[in-house]
């Protein structure tokens, strides 16, 4: 079910109006299953994305293990976990790919499916998507 895509798009649009990023919430880290849960969700999301012809090409020249580790650490940090914040923005890592909104949405679909498969509570899914939404501006080619 693709129930969050409109919410994510709205959150991304509204985040441009906000003066600061949403704050991490340690309860969210716990609801995602801590680091082991986050690692499972991100690994599954990337496995789904790498198998999806809509976006698989974007992962062709990447180290999948490293990518899973970096994204897991980023979600850990955003969700209030003990992982340090990385200073590098999303733009440098994605700019050369020329990703469009449909590519972004495909990966979000896979994230939603992975969270559903992991039994992540609905409210926790929404909170994570809200934290990730501001990254859309840096990931999608303008």
UniProtKB/TrEMBL annotation:
Coiled coil: none annotated. GO terms for molecular function: heme binding; metal ion binding; oxygen binding. Gene3D superfamilies: Globins. Keywords: Heme, Iron, Metal-binding, Transport. InterPro entries: Globin-like_sf, Globin/Proto, Hemoglobin_trunc. Pfam families: Bac_globin (PF01152). Heme binds at residue 94. This is Cyanoglobin Hemoglobin-like protein HbN. It comes from uncultured Acetobacteraceae bacterium. The lineage of its organism: Bacteria, Pseudomonadati, Pseudomonadota, Alphaproteobacteria, Acetobacterales.
